[in-house]
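Report of the visiting student (M.T.), summer placement. My assignment was to run the structure pipeline on a short list of targets and document each run. The first record concerns MerR family transcriptional regulator.
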Amino acid sequence: MKEYFSIGETARLNHISIQTLRYYDKIGIFKPYYTDQDNGYRYYHVKQFFYLDIIKYLKCIKTPLEDIKRIISHTCTPERMQTFLDEQESVIEREMERLERARQLLHRRKNQLHEQVEIRTKKEEGLVYVRHIEGQTILKAATPQVNPHDQSDLYYRKLAEVLEERGDMVDNYYGLIYDLKPYKDSGDIYCNSVYTTIHDGVKIEIEGQNMTIDSFPSGEYVCISFDCSVTNYFSYYQKLYHFIESHGIQTDEKVYQISLPNSYDSLREEDFLTEFRVRKK
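After the run finished, the structure tokens were exported:
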């Protein structure tokens, strides 16, 4: 029975590339049984394939090459391998948690984009409308003396910092909350807080950061949507306010403003779809 195999045969039999075998040889992870001194050809013994399977297994469970080199050394015992696998299991579990957060973030963003498409359709009609909005958990930061036209980006950045510290991300969904009143112009509007949506049940350390975890209440909302600019902002607010007043609609007297990007190019002029929402009692 054949015992020695060339690098090409070894690669083919073990479903691994020749380049990888050469690299393993270079860094001392898996070396050929012998090298022909005349032509430099590498040859592997069939008994080595078992140990190559160990390396492939360790790679499959996301073990760094540096750790693999340490594990396959002659000093590694079954006891040490068991300890390492316990450690690696913890690494994989943390990675699974990270991927699950990424999946949840992706789903939230997809749902938001679906909602944005619906809002754009309403915007084209140019009318006040009523729609049902599901409740959402939000992370909220107090914003004293912040006008909707002021630079509220630093407050949004504070929200992002808190989420990123726990390995989460802001999902491009920012909002403002302020009182529903008969303002004379948009310069009289001051926001109570800014917020972003977060996953239900999330645990965030917010002590001393002037933030709260709250909920965006489920219910029927009177809404109007538009492509936001400083010049048209107040006219849309007035249109919504007068509609509510003229129809005698009872509300919780809060405006929830959301802004969603129409473009993703940071060098272009800001282009946001904005919706004002006021919940009916």
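The helical segments are 7-13, 18-27, 49-60, 65-71, 78-125, 153-165, 233-246. The two ends are 85 Å apart (CA to CA). I thank the supervising group for their guidance throughout the placement.
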